[in-house]
């Protein structure tokens, strides 16, 4: 197990470097980081040169990348061009997005797995067909459309919720945005669980469990579900990074001041440090979540052993 | 919907809204077994090919027929939008802004006083163009790289696998915002280029896995023993037997690319006005959602149906091509 973790951590290094370098290059080569500083007008050359020197932008790109990464590993994500520390922005933005992601994942686990189990056990029934059709519709409608429609119906027409979220973004205001963020993944989780349950239902160990007289709920929960959840866990684990990155759309619809909001502002203002910093953290979250999922396999399925 | 249809999740998951995921896509896993169905030799007693068999299945599948007709209609109106509209999508009359449905203007007017019906019809062109061209690019680039890596293996294969890992770690919408926000071009090409850039790893994984499976077959070994060259092995023997999963995933991906273009346009970095795109219209209509919801609902509905049509088509093709049925 220990050796496996070390090997996986080593494998993460090139992926981490590649992904951050790619984003770094996109931001630096494609955009002009100075242009955002002088507002709408053109920077005058002397100011531009001074600013470039101040932020180290006159050095070659690889040098800038190395310097930046060196700083990141000492906990210094640099300063946004408005003088605010990027770590400060992160400290306000990440808790909001983490809350949002947590709600989304809870929806996926509770609703997605439940619907998947129910439909998987009753394949071909009207409930099954109905849920399957619904998942297809949810998958086909892009998240921003789902979000706008739910905002229109629940927030504006019926007035059940506030259409936009306050800047503190407490848990109760994030329930609908969380559901919107989860919607597509929720449909996938349902379908994945359904397939998995339906497949394993015919297996020998389930027949044995039923034959030895175990109560139905015990067969389903202890035997069937535990074996069927492995692909679902993979999906949800990989989804953590996806949800945090995809929150950019949901956060824009509901005006939530989380990671997506900060990133969007950073990109609009061509604020290199903010964008690269946030993306670096998101890539790390994605990689670590995938590692944890792989380790969870061994817990869920005792047949899997890592040497 | 037929019972026991195949699950699209492994195939579509990687191109959902705004993220990439590595689900270890395995075509064998994705092609779940379907109970019943056709197969075996044809009525003439001749063995049928995979493709004629699949076509026979598809023609009998009502889901396929319905959504294929929807797609044909979409292609038709994107080629000849003037066949069912009279005005231009850029002719707007501000005095009619946010007006509802009336004769001659069945979908009403949007916030700028443009006819929503005309704009919705013309929006199909953008979506279909982006979807088809991006899918072509992704399919060609991804399957060539994936097939070569799977066939030759070795260092190139390892390098390619690591590169795909890197691309999977970058959230798609985020990458789009970063890369496209600095581009001022007003054509569909930057969006298509971006989708190809971030989409090919998904297809290359599928193609690689598929080629590795196919190359272990006896007939490939036999052909190799008879002295066939690498290019002949790859093109004549492996490719025809490895292309099915690529086609299925590419069809489903087409739908998700259309959704991605709309999302990017909604965020303001995809296509920009005066281009006509459903994403732009939805974004423009969202501030008036209280007074003129119709301006939001029609393009949203058109977008949803288009995406659904391609996903269902891919699903039906997957059903038909399922090798476990044969």
Distinctive features:
heterodimer; A: 307 residues; mainly alpha; MetI-like fold; B: 326 residues; 63% helix; cell membrane (chain B); transmembrane helix (chain B); transport (chain B); membrane (chain B)
SSE order and pairing:
The complex is a heterodimer of chains A (307) and B (326).
Chain A: H1 2-30, H2 45-54, H3 61-72, H4 86-121, H5 126-140, H6 143-157, H7 175-201, H8 204-211, H9 216-253, H10 259-268, H11 272-300
Chain B: H1 9-12, H2 27-30, H3 50-59, H4 62-79, H5 116-152, H6 154-168, H7 172-180, H8 189-215, H9 218-225, H10 230-267, H11 278-285, H12 294-321
- Provide the β-strand percentage band of chain B: under 5%
Q: Write down the secondary-structure element order of chain A.
A: HHHHHHHHHHH
Helix content of chain B: 55-70%
Domain unit count of chain A: 2
The CATH superfamily of the largest domain in chain B turns out to be MetI-like
Gap between N and C termini of chain A: 6 Å
Account of the protein in words:
The complex is a heterodimer of chains A (307) and B (326). With 307 residues, chain A is mainly alpha-helical. Helix content of chain A is 75%, strand content 0%. Chain A is globular, with a radius of gyration of 23 Å. Chain B folds into two domains: 1-45, no CATH class; 51-325, MetI-like fold (Orthogonal Bundle). Helix content of chain B is 63%, strand content 0%. Chain B has twelve helices and no strands. Chain B is elongated and about 75 Å long. The two termini of chain B are 22 Å apart. The interface between A and B is large, with 65 and 57 residues.
Give a quick rundown of the structure:
The complex is a heterodimer of chains A (307) and B (326). Chain A has 307 residues and is mostly helical.
